[in-house]
Write a structure and sequence with these properties.
Blueprint (H helix, E strand, L loop, with lengths): L5 H44 L5 H5 L12 H32 L4 H13 L4 H15 L6 H25 L3 H9 L4 H30 L2 H5 L20 H9 L5 H34 L1
Helix pairs in contact: 1-11, 3-6, 3-8, 3-10, 4-6, 5-6, 6-8, 7-8, 8-11, 10-11
């Protein structure tokens, strides 16, 4: 019987520990670089925009004078846009994921559909803008309204929500389904009472990431012809509107240096909206995490 030599073990262990330290240092460096980029970005935005951020900035409409420029129309327009995007994309996305995971037959056609939904998540946003221009703006004659833009943005984030919801539903233990069926529940009751509540934290995480992308996208809005400056607020989903990324894009592209500070203040407002959306999602997710 051959015994392991102690010196060989110690030598190999030392080399393994050194390799472990090297990779730990690489991962730490990658984390620090990412944090450094984030800190520089935040410092740049806050240092530029905090001087222009005021109540008047939130209450004024856009202007060709930097000192009078405000973000009221873009902020309200973005909220209108999210009121269309959130219910449309979440209902369709979660519904599609439930069908693919719980009802569809597990065959090649289903696998082909899943693969193409995953591929759609990587398609550039301008392509969805062209699709929205063809279907919603021209074929359905919705123009550059809130509804057309909301449907276009829903198409953009729908694959992300479907994939996230599929993964969340798939992660629910099979024992919970079996226990529900064993107590006499139907498939629909099992989905509503057991699967969806257990999968909700994962669904919310994916949905909020997708909605965060939708509220910050500019390319699809440019393609469907959303204006950058308006002097009124939308009163319904069929009205013309503008959005925060469009307004920020317009300010940042102007040659006057003063508009760069206005754009930075607009970015701070956009980040505040994203922070509020993420906080609400985290609160709901933590509530259901404790339950399941």
């Amino acid at each position: 019987m051959r015994y392991i030599e102690q010196q060989t073990v110690v030598k190999r262990m030392n080399s393994r520990l050194i390799i472990n330290k090297i990779f730990q240092s690489i991962f730490l460096l990658a984390t620090l670089l990412a944090l450094l980029a984030l800190v520089i970005l935040l410092y740049r935005i806050v240092s530029q925009g905090v001087g222009h951020l005021s109540l008047e900035f939130l209450m004024n409409f856009a202007s060709r004078f930097p000192e009078k420029a405000g973000i009221k129309a873009a902020l309200i327009g973005s909220l209108w846009l999210m009121m269309v995007v959130a219910p449309t994309s979440i209902i369709l996305g979660v519904g599609s994921a439930i069908y693919l995971e719980e009802y569809a037959k597990q065959n090649r056609i289903t696998s082909f559909i899943r693969m193409n939904i995953s591929n759609l998540a990587g398609v550039p946003s301008v392509v969805f803008g062209l699709l929205g221009l063809t279907i919603f703006v021209r074929a359905m004659a919705l123009g550059n309204s809130v509804l057309a833009a909301g449907f276009t943005m829903s198409l953009l984030i729908l694959p992300v929500i479907v994939v996230a919801a599929q993964e969340a539903i798939r992660s629910v233990p099979g024992e919970m389904r079996d226990a529900s069926y064993g107590m006499g529940a139907t498939k629909w009751q099992t989905i509503i009472k057991i699967i969806l509540p257990a999968a909700l934290p994962g669904i919310l995480t994916g949905s909020i990431l997708a909605l965060s992308r939708a509220i910050g996208e500019t390319a699809p809005l440019i393609v469907i012809g959303v204006p950058v400056i308006i002097q009124f607020l939308p009163a319904g989903v069929m009205d013309t509107f503008t959005a925060l990324p469009m307004q920020i894009y317009d300010w940042s592209s102007r040659p006057q240096q003063e508009f760069q500070t206005v754009a930075a203040a607009g970015i701070m407002v956009l980040m505040a909206v994203l922070l509020i959306m993420n906080s609400i999602a985290v609160i709901i997710r933590n509530k259901f995490d404790k339950r399941y």
